[in-house]
Amino acid sequence: MSRMSGRTRSFIALTVVLAALSFVFSVQAGTDWAKDWRKLGSVPVNFSSDRDEIRCAGKGFVRQIVVEVRKTAVNFDDMNVHLVNGTVVDVPLRAVVRAGERSRIIDLPGEARLIKKIVFRYRGVGGGSKGRAEVVVWGNKP
C-alpha cells in the first residue's frame, strides 16, 4: 500500500472541500435565479447601430434588473429605463459585458416598477465586434 505525503492529503482534502462548496453555491444561485428573476425581453445586436431597445410592457412589476449578453461581448455606454408612469431612469451602465456574463444588479428607485421599454447605447469591444450579440434583460420579482 502506497503512502501519501501529508502535503498530498491536504491538497486532496482542500480540492474536495472546494468542489463541494462550488456545487452547493452553484445549485443555490441557480435555484434563486430561476425563482426570483423573469425574462423581460431580448434584442439581437449587430453593431451596425449604436442604439437598441427592448419592449417590456406587460411583464409585471420589478425592483431590479440585470443585463445578460450572449454570443459576443458588448460595451455598454448608457441605459435608459422607461417606466409605464412616464418616468425615465438613466442608468450609466458603462461596462463591458462578455458573452455568457451578466451586468451588476441594477436597483430601480422607489417601489417595484412597471417597465415600458429599455433603451441601450453601446459599441463593439476592441474597435468592433465580430458577429452578433444578444442582449437579454432579466427583472427581479417583488
Could you please say which CATH topology applies here?
Jelly Rolls
Helix content: 10-25%
Distance between the termini: 59 Å
Tell me the structural class.
alpha+beta
Q: Care to count the β-strands?
A: 11
| The CATH superfamily title | C-terminal carbohydrate-binding module
* Model regions low in confidence, pLDDT < 50 over at least 5 residues: 17-31
- What is the number of helices? 1
Compute the average pLDDT.
79
Quickly count the domains. 1
Largest β sheet strand count, sense and barrel closure: 6 strands, antiparallel
Give the C-alpha Rg: 20 Å
CATH architecture: Sandwich
CATH class type: Mainly Beta
The SSE string, one letter per element, is HEEEEEEEEEEE
Strand content: 35-45%
Shape: globular
Strand-helix topology:
Layout: H1 6-36, E1 37-45, E2 51-55, E3 61-62, E4 64-70, E5 74-83, E6 88-91, E7 95-97, E8 101-102, E9 106-107, E10 113-123, E11 133-140
Description of the molecule:
This protein is an alpha+beta fold. It has a single domain (38-140), classed as C-terminal carbohydrate-binding module (Jelly Rolls), CATH 2.60.120.1380. The protein is built from one helix and eleven strands. The protein has one helix at residues 6-36; strands spanning 37-45, 51-55, 61-62, 64-70, 74-83, 88-91, 95-97, 101-102, 106-107, 113-123, 133-140. The strands form two sheets. Strands 2, 3, 5, 6, 7 and 10 form a six-stranded antiparallel β-sheet that branches. Strands 1, 4, 8, 9 and 11 form a five-stranded antiparallel β-sheet that branches. A hairpin with a 4-residue loop joins strand 5 (74-83) and strand 6 (88-91). It is globular.
